[in-house]
Specification:
This protein is α+β, with helices and mostly antiparallel strands and 122 residues long. It has 2 helices and 6 strands, in the order βαβββββα. The chain has a 6-stranded antiparallel β-sheet. A hairpin with a 2-residue loop joins strand 3 (33-41) and strand 4. It is globular.
Amino acid sequence: MQLEGVVQHGHNRGKHLGFPTINFPLQQAVDEGIYVSHITINDVQYNALTFIGAAKTFHETEVFAETYVFDFAENVYGKSVTVSLLKKLRDNQKFDSEQALIAQMERDKKQAEEYFNQQINE
């Protein structure tokens, strides 16, 4: 599935947690959760993790797409991006603390890296 959007400012929570994200509102219904993904920015494709949903840990209700891009640190606010969802890793869930969320995000990142390494070796 592909998602398209224009990058908007978020709450800067991802940056605070060590996982800065590219945020954009959803234009279509998507099953909430964490996905291994590719994101295309300025015609360049990057490996990524994408969260679809409301940030339950922070009592948010608005559903957004938030994409953590591996090895990327550019300012892309206002740019159009395309995200390809490749594999769902898990459902959206609420965590008891920021530390628990960060630990899960580290596990998600490791799973995504393993997925991409496997694709290279096939």
